[in-house]
Amino acid sequence: MGQTAIVIGATGVVGREVVAELIACEAIARVVTLTRRPAPCDSDKVENHVVGFARLEDWAHCFQADLLVSSSGANHASRNGYLRMKGELEVAIKALPFARISVFQPSLLVGERSEFRLGESLARYLLPALTRLPGLQRYRPIRGAQVAARMVEVSQRQQQAHAVYRLEEVFPRIPA
């Protein structure tokens, strides 16, 4: 019997790619996706649940799995609302009784989005040059598909209970 994977945010740049990687992974028998809007998929492996994240406890039955991977660039004490929310999610996930938790912290994600984001578009062109400066390598853009492939790979070999993977550690020389 194969493993069950949970993907929170399966409609995002990395989430879509992670689901595709998990479908192709022979060790994974079932993929549970928790999303804010429907995420149609042609695979029988995928079970999508549209959830209200403010009342996630109502969906506790969906968290029966062998693998949970959260993607973030997080800090629970950040003044930035997005980064604070990601940090709070990391803290909450680590409190759950999963055997293994992998937290990936990539920089700007490059990939197909459902909406236009001006700031990300500008950063996509400016960051490659800026990240050549000493100390800024960890902020270079990376393709969502690259992150997804590495997330699934790591999920199959990680031994420690909690691990954080930062961009520069997991992708030392992969261009965006």
Short structural description:
The protein is an alpha/beta fold.
Question: What keywords describe this structure?
Answer:
alpha/beta; Rossmann fold; 5 helices; six-stranded parallel beta sheet; two-stranded parallel ribbon; 176 residues; 32% helix
Could you describe the 3D structure shown?
The chain has a single domain, classed as NAD(P)-binding Rossmann-like Domain (Rossmann fold, 3-Layer(aba) Sandwich). The relative contact order is 0.16. The protein is built from 5 helices and 8 strands; from the N terminus they run E-H-E-E-E-H-E-E-H-E-H-E-H. The chain is globular and about 50 Å long. Strand 6, helix 3 and strand 7 form a beta-alpha-beta unit. It is α/β, with parallel strands linked by helices. Helix 1 (13-24) crosses helix 4 (144-157). The strands form 2 sheets. It has a 6-stranded parallel β-sheet with strand order 3-2-1-4-5-8, with helices on both faces. It starts with a strand and ends in a 6-residue tail after the last helix. The chain has helices spanning 13-24, 81-94, 118-130, 144-157, 167-170; strands at residues 3-8, 28-35, 46-50, 67-71, 101-105, 109-110, 142-143, 162-166.
